[in-house]
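=== RUN LOG ===
request id: a7f3
mode: sequence -> structure
chains: 1
length: 189
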Amino acid sequence: MRWQLTTLEVPPQPLRFKVPLVEDFDEWCALFNQHNQDPETPSIHDWIERHSAYYVALPYAREQYEAGHMDAVLFALSRCYRYDLEVPDWAREGLLRITDSIELSQARGWDEVLGRPIPKGTHIASVRKRHRLRPAVFNEVLAELEKGSPIDEALFERVGQKLGAGKSLVAELYYEEKKRATEDWPGFF
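=== RESULT ===
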């Protein structure tokens, strides 16, 4: 996506959920214990993903939509449907604007309204490889760091051999993911 990160000077208005969020640490612990006893209960991973969608992804998507990036509407809708969140009014309005522009022939096609998802000339195989490797690289590097390994070329080479990638690509993907994770979860990494 071609979004640019900007900071919000005013916090976004709270969004509405179809199912209430876990609001505090005690509820979080109760959810953790309940999931351990009954796997049908949402896991802590589900809780973190849902909160991340609510507190990080949707406000960011709204900011991008208001800046004119219509693809932010699809991003927001995917988060709402994936995590059972109520679709915000701005996303509904955006979807109608998108479909109206196509139905009323104001745009020649989806790419004109939403932008090209992958720039022309990009090798799709390399995009797919990077997308597939990024979380694996990040997790492997974190596992190595927990064992006490220093962050150096040898670390990236070991991880690369394990995952079938070069050390330069591993280093690049690790730092990209670390930057993204640091922006999403300040102070966590």
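=== NOTES ===
Residues 16 and 86 are 6 Å apart (CA to CA).
The chain has two domains: 25-114, 124-184.
=== END ===
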